[in-house]
Write a structure and sequence with these properties.
This protein has 540 residues and is α+β, with helices and mostly antiparallel strands. Helix content is 35%, strand content 15%. It has 19 helices and 21 strands. Strands 2-1-3-18-6 form a five-stranded mixed β-sheet. It has a four-stranded mixed β-sheet with strand order 8-13-7-14. Strands 4-5 form a two-stranded antiparallel ribbon. α12 crosses α14 and α18 packs antiparallel against α19. The radius of gyration is 25 Å and the shape is globular.
Length: 540
C-alpha cells in the first residue's frame, strides 16, 4: 500500500486487500389459511375471554405519519382486531410515538416519574433512558413466557441472538427482538452507468477501486463542465462511511458499541488495533487525492444524500432496505443506473463487505405494569407466524383503505395517498417482527426496485460479512460513563481520525499518541474488563 500513500508520510503501510405499482394476476389470496402446528400460535378457544390492553411507547423514527399518529390510529386498531380475531381474546394495542430527537430524554422522565407503560420499545434493555430498569424489577423476565407462548418467535429468532446484551442479562431474557429484514442489510452501491461510460469493469481489488476513483475524479461524468465527482462519499460522523475500515476486517463500532478482536492473545477494541493506523492512513490518502469529499467534516445526512442524487458520487455505502432512494428519478440527470458491489476482494479470493450485526432493529420490553404479559407474548408470536391475514396486513395495510379485494385477489396501488404517505406505518413502524419493504411480493407490486438487485444484495450479505467476537459482550463499565473512549461524536478516536485525514496532526505519531491517551483515560481498565469477559465466553 506504500505506493498509494504520499511520500511525505514516510510511513510504510501494509494492506493486504482492503476493504428496499401495480396489481398482478398472481396476487395472493386474502383468505386466511389453516395454521399448521409448526408455524401458528395455538388459539385459546377454550379460555374465558379477558380484555387486555397494552400501551406501547416507541420512537417515531422521524417518519411524518408516525409523528401525527394517535393511540387510536386505524393501523393500531386493525392490527389488534386481527390478533383478537385470531386468538379469540379481545386485545387492544395502542402505540404512542415519541419524537426521535427527544426519545431518550422523554423516556428517562417517564421512568423517573413512574409513568411507565405496559410495553417499551428500545434499542436495548440497557439503554441509558432506562439503564437500571432490570435491576429495579421494572422489566419482566420473559424466558418462561417465550417457552410457553412463543414457539414461532423461537423458530424465527437465531439462537445466538438471545444472549446479546440488548436482550438478556445474567441468563434472563427481558426483551423480544424485532429483526432487521434482511437481517444484515449492508450494501455498497455503484454508478453502473459511469462504469459503462468509462469502459471499466466493476472494481474488486484495491488497485481497481483506486483506478476507478482516479478516472471519476478526472472525467466529467455528470457533464456539468466541472471535475466535481468523487469516488466515495463520507458523512461527518462517518455514518455509512466505513467501507475502507471493513476492508481490513475491522470496524470502529457497530450498534453503538465498540468492536473488539483478539490480537496476539489480547482482546482489544478495533479503534486501537494496529490495523486501524493503516486504515486511517488509507482514508488520509483518499482525502489527499480527492477521491472522497473534502467537506466531509460538516456533511450532514441530508447533504450526503443530496451529493449522491446530484450526480457527484461514484460509490457509497447504505442500507439495502433503502434501495428506493436510488431509483433513476431521484437523480438530477434522471439516468442513473445503480448496481451493488460484493465488497473488497482479498488475496484468497474472498470478499469483505462489512461486519455481521446483531440483526436487531428494535427490542420489545414488557414492564411490571403489564397485567396480561402472556397475551403480549402471544401477540408477538402471531406476528412471527405464517398467518395469511397478518401477512396481508403488514404488506398491504387495511382492506378498502389501502387495498381492495375481488374474487380473492388483492389490488394494491402504492401510489395512492393512503399508501404513499402511510405504508411505512403498517409495513415496519408497527410491525414487531420485521419489515416488509423488502418482501418479494411488495417489491414486485411496487415496480420500483429490481427484485434481482435485492436478491443479489441479500446474497452478498450472506457470504461476505465477517464475525464480531464482541457482539454479545456488554459494554465495559469503564466505557459506559466515558464517551470519549468510544467511537462516535466527541470521542478521542473520531477526533484523531479527522485530524489525521485533514493533515492537522502527524499521521504516525498522532495514532500512537491517541492509543496512549485512550489507555491512560480508562482504556487499560476497559481492556482488563473485556479480557475477563472474553476468557469466560470465547469459543473454544
Amino acid at each position: 500500500m506504500k505506493k498509494w500513500l504520499p511520500a511525505a508520510l514516510s510511513v510504510s503501510v501494509s494492506i493486504s486487500v482492503l476493504l428496499t405499482a401495480c396489481s398482478s394476476n398472481d396476487a395472493p389470496s386474502a383468505t386466511d389459511t389453516k395454521a399448521t402446528a409448526t408455524t401458528e400460535t395455538s388459539k385459546a378457544t377454550e379460555a374465558p375471554k379477558v380484555q387486555a390492553t397494552f400501551n406501547v411507547i416507541s420512537n417515531d423514527g422521524g417518519y411524518a405519519y408516525s409523528k401525527t399518529a394517535t393511540k387510536e390510529d386505524p393501523y393500531h386498531t386493525e392490527m389488534a382486531r386481527l390478533f383478537s380475531e385470531f386468538s379469540g381474546q379481545p386485545t387492544t394495542i395502542k402505540y404512542e410515538f415519541i419524537p426521535s430527537a427527544d426519545y431518550t430524554q422523554q423516556v428517562t422522565v417517564r421512568f423517573a416519574s413512574g409513568d411507565i407503560p405496559e410495553v417499551v420499545t428500545s434499542d436495548s434493555i440497557l439503554n441509558s433512558a432506562h439503564a437500571t430498569a432490570v435491576e429495579n424489577g421494572i422489566f419482566l423476565p420473559l424466558n418462561d413466557l417465550i417457552d410457553k407462548y412463543g414457539k414461532n418467535i423461537k423458530a424465527k429468532v437465531p439462537e445466538a441472538t438471545w444472549s446479546l446484551p440488548a436482550l438478556s442479562k445474567d441468563g434472563k431474557i427481558y426483551g423480544i427482538p424485532k429483526l432487521l429484514t434482511p437481517i444484515n442489510p449492508q450494501a455498497l452501491l455503484i454508478r453502473k452507468d459511469w462504469l459503462d461510460k468509462l469502459g471499466m469493469k466493476q472494481p474488486e481489488t484495491m488497485e481497481e477501486y483506486l483506478a476507478f476513483f482516479e478516472k471519476v475524479k478526472t472525467t466529467d461524468l455528470n457533464g456539468n463542465g466541472k471535475n466535481d465527482e468523487v469516488g466515495y462519499e463520507i458523512r461527518g460522523m462517518f455514518g455509512f462511511s466505513n467501507f475502507f475500515f471493513y476492508a481490513q476486517g475491522i470496524s470502529p463500532g457497530e450498534n453503538g458499541a465498540l468492536v473488539w478482536h483478539d490480537v496476539n492473545g489480547q482482546f482489544i477494541p478495533d479503534i486501537i488495533n494496529p490495523k486501524m493506523k493503516e486504515a486511517m492512513l488509507f482514508y488520509k490518502m483518499l482525502y489527499d487525492k480527492g477521491y472522497i469529499n473534502k467537506d466531509f467534516i460538516n456533511v450532514k445526512d441530508a447533504d450526503w444524500v443530496k451529493a449522491i442524487q446530484d450526480d457527484k458520487v461514484a460509490t457509497w455505502s447504505h442500507d439495502l432496505r433503502n434501495l428506493n432512494s436510488w431509483t433513476p428519478d431521484k437523480f438530477a440527470g434522471k439516468s442513473a443506473k445503480i448496481d451493488l458491489l460484493p465488497g473488497m476482494k482479498q488475496a484468497d479470493g474472498k470478499y469483505i463487505l462489512g461486519p455481521k450485526g446483531t440483526g436487531i432493529a428494535k427490542v420489545y420490553i414488557l414492564t411490571k405494569n403489564a397485567k396480561n404479559p402472556e397475551r403480549f407474548v402471544q401477540f408477538l408470536d402471531w406476528t412471527y407466524s405464517d398467518n395469511a391475514k397478518k401477512d396481508t396486513f403488514f404488506r398491504y395495510g387495511i382492506k378498502d383503505r389501502n387495498y381492495t379485494e375481488a374474487n380473492g385477489q388483492i389490488t394494491w396501488d402504492p401510489k395512492l395517498p393512503a399508501n404513499a404517505n402511510e405504508k411505512l406505518q403498517y409495513q415496519t413502524m408497527v410491525n414487531p417482527s420485521g419489515d416488509t419493504r423488502m418482501d418479494p411480493e411488495v417489491i414486485k407490486r411496487e415496480g420500483v426496485i429490481d427484485p434481482e438487485l435485492v436478491k443479489k444484495g441479500v446474497g452478498f450479505e450472506e457470504k461476505n460479512l465477517f464475525e464480531i467476537p464482541s457482539m454479545s459482550m456488554p459494554t465495559p463499565d469503564t466505557i459506559k460513563t466515558k464517551p470519549e473512549l468510544g467511537f462516535a461524536a466527541g470521542s478521542l478516536f473520531l477526533d484523531t481520525l479527522t485530524q489525521i485525514m485533514i493533515g492537522k496532526i502527524d499521521p504516525d505519531k498522532g495514532f500512537d499518541n491517541f492509543v496512549a491517551d485512550w489507555k491512560k483515560r480508562g482504556g487499560e481498565q476497559a481492556i482488563k474488563e473485556a479480557n475477563d469477559w472474553y476468557a469466560k465466553n470465547k469459543k473454544k
